[in-house]
Request: fold
Amino acid sequence: MPEAARGRQAKLGVMQRFWFASLLGLLALCAVGCGPRSIRADLDHHNLSDDDLLALLPQGQEAVIDVDVAALRAWPPMQALLSLIPARLLSSLSSLAGNPLQDVDALCVGATGLGSGAVESTLLVSGRLPKDKLWQDLARREGSREVTYHGMPLVEAGDRALVQLSDRTWVLGSRLQVRQTIDIFRGVDPGLRKQSSLMNALAMAPTGKQGRPPVLAAVLLGSDLRRRAHEAGVLRVFDEAQSIALAVAVGDGIDVGVVVSYPFVQMAAEALSQVRAHAAELGSRSLVKLLHLDRFVSPLVSVAVPQSKKRLTPELHLAYRLPGYELDDLLRRVSQLMSLLQGRESGKEGERASPQPAEPVRK
Reply:
């Protein structure tokens, strides 16, 4: 073979080996780059912030409560308020965190099915939570399973599911609602802030002088819920109401604001009359006067407000404020009353548990 031909063949062999090696390298890069880690990293890249828990709730909620626990943590009366929470509820909170007030920074709860007898709630909680305990509490249930959805591991048991969205944020709810929350967090679907009906209701809540109040809540009053409230004898002011908003601000005392919307201003005026009548009746009760609690009713201020450019509907406004020293006195009195009632219940339980004296034997 001529020297020139051998040279061309050698160069061709080198080029073939070069392209073959390049192809193998490209395939290796694709194998690594398209693996599970790359997919997870790509999904994480589109994650929303978990600073706004309300925005991560799925749409379709009928009620929501948004609590800034970190803002309440430094409020002196908060510990006294916690002591008034029923032991059963406090135990449920402790299952999420050993010390809810210290370990939880924020929580948000959405609810559907109000008044239907099949209420479904979704909880988003952010803070320093016991990861293994939360996971195992659900994983130990019969029929539980661990699955992955959009790159996120979650545990499911029955219709309940739990997922950790980030290092500090968890979601507990139905399987559907938890998966919808993951879709929102991944940027696939819009969250609750796009639900205009509930957001309009929440926007009615009074705002604080310094930032947002630590407790915000809103409820859409459907026909089922109004009927249940009426049958239960709850204040008739809700019979014709459309929605309710609540805000609680703290500082030197406590400020509670409630706004209720109505279709017509006459309904708001009638509700105002009912509220004032109920407040007067409550303040005149013998037990209330005996415990000197009547002075804690008088700070309630109520007014009916007509529709305007800033208000979509007529509203009933309720405002209640207690300064710090009055709040401390109220909490002390409530605590004493609860201790008294618990003592009576314990006494009744003891009487029921004690053996009855045997009847004398008749000869």
